[in-house]
Amino acid sequence: MTPEYWWAIGLALAIVITAALVNKFAPGSRGRLRAISVLFVLYALALFSAEALKYFGEGAWANRVFILAEVLRAFAVVSLAGTIVFRLALAGIGVSAPTIASDLLVGVGYILATIGVFWDHGLDPVGALATGAAVSAVLAISLQSTLGNILGGVALQLDGSIHEGDWIQLDNGKQGRIRAIRWRHTLLETRDWSTIVVPNALLLQNNITILGWRDGAPAPQRMWVYFNVDFRFAPHQVIQVITDALHNSPIENVAPDPKPSVVCMDFAHDGKDSVAYYAVRYWLTDLAVDDPTSSRVRTRIYTALKRAGIPLAVPAVTNLVQINDREREKSHAVKEQDARLAALKTVHLFAPLTEAELRLIAEGITTVLYTKGETITRQGAVAHYLYVLTRGSVEVRSRKADDPNGEHRLVATLDAPEIFGEMGLMTGAPRGADVVAIDAVECYRLDKPTFERVLLGRPEIAKELADKLATRRATNALRDSMTVEQRAKHHESEAERILGGIKDFFGL
Questions:
Q1: 185 within 8 A of 197, measured Cβ to Cβ
Q2: Which of 191-200, 279-288, 436-445 has the lowest mean pLDDT?
Q3: Coil, strand, or helix at residue 212?
Q4: Is 253 in contact with 285 (CB distance < 8 Å)?
Q5: If both were cysteines, with which of 135, 264, 310, 376 could 305 make a disulfide (CB 3.0 to 4.6 Å apart)?
Q6: Whether the model pTM is above 0.90
């Protein structure tokens, strides 16, 4: 076999091995493998054609085609080397070379390889280069716009001013993420699943804003969410309520640092609106989901204001028509009272209470809303509330007492109807776990003063309540590890301990 055939076999094996490595480590570069394969096929065809022409006595043409085959082989070798160096070796050590820069180097390799092949066959490449230079000058004059875009693409990649993955805003206000910087243009993917093709020269000529990027390091993008509240509510109260809700538990795609903040923007203009204007400033970590994230923030604002009894403002120019139907209002109040009473009757803890005592509690409880991801109770906090879960689901999560910043452990999932926070109401004990809403949640919240009226009216029910709390707190694992006699003794001591806590907390 001639050396040329050994070249063909060796090159084919090298392409196969490189293809396997690319498929495993750099699947995004498969397009380059296809180009290399095309060059190899053209090289093989040219080599076969040269042998055929030689066989039929066309020596001069055979020599010309053989030179072409060597040029194609050189192109394939250069492309293969470029793929190995830029797509495998440099990528493997974490170095990302600009696409245009690697293409330029491969292009220079093509030129040098062509000169080398010509020189090896005794051809003078100077004349070819001179002719090429003259043709290039003519093309440069006729293709100024295209060349400007090409040079713009080279400049953008070589100076590193923008990179693939950056979010930018054009002069016309359009925003998008850079998908690719190509020779002639740059592709921007917008949030509405559209792609903008921007000539590279245009990016160099105009001002562009790189979003979420500062001092050479990625930074979240600041966003604003506006809302109005009746000015009769003190700004410090509104700001505190919303700030607590935003900081209480994380919100998806909202940066934890800098933390969200609330500002009072302005009061009514010219007495037209009896509202104060507020804004939440938060920092967005994923610019592709700006509207969905702002929606989550608005939901958090709404539920926080609802819990605090602060309504969103209605513009003064809005015409409201209200039917003063006392019977209708009375009927609605009765239905609401009956719904609360029905919910309280499902609570096993309140089984010792009479109908009148349950109605007294129903009159004093408040309805509170929580959105997905909000923390309702926090481990270690002191809050004298009991929650009756009437809609939605929550997770009970606990951390080790000696590691307050450690990871949470899922203790239980509670679905409506259910209660939690009973020890905080009955004994004043700190919360034993976090309770987090895993979807939209509605609860009845019972506070200490309301329950105190019932307990002080009939102190003897404290013992029954303590007994039921002791039963509720006994875990299945604990019961399974004890005999019947041991369980009875443990239950008695636990009930006695809880009863002492109730008496001390309520001063019985």
A1: yes
A2: 191-200
A3: coil
A4: yes
A5: 310
A6: no
Question: Is cis: bond before 311, omega within 30 of 0?
Answer: no
Most confident of 174-188, 202-216, 287-301, 452-466: 287-301
Tally of CB atoms within 10 A around 493: 11
In Å, what is the CA distance from 80 to each residue of 35, 95, 289, 468, 495? 10, 19, 40, 76, 79
210-239 burial: b if 16+ Cβ within 10 Å, else e: ebbbeeeeeebbebebebbbebebeeeebb
Structure confidence by residue, pLDDT tens digits, 136-149: 544 444 444 555 55
What is the Cα–Cα distance from 330 to 125, expressed in whole angstroms?
101
Q: Given the structure tokens 């490595």, which residue do they identify?
A: 21
DSSP 403-458: -TTS--EEEEEEESSEEE-HHHHHT-PPPSSEEEESS-EEEEEEEHHHHHHHHHH-
Structural Rg of the chain based on CA atoms: 38
Q: Which two tokens stand for residue 395?
A: 């997770």
323 alpha carbon, distance to own chain's centre:
46
CB contact set of 211 (below 8 Å; sequence gap of 6+): 166, 167, 168, 169, 175, 221, 287
- Secondary element (H or E) of residue 375: strand 375-377
Q: How many CB atoms lie within 10 A of CB 46?
A: 19
Sole residue written with tokens 């220079």:
108
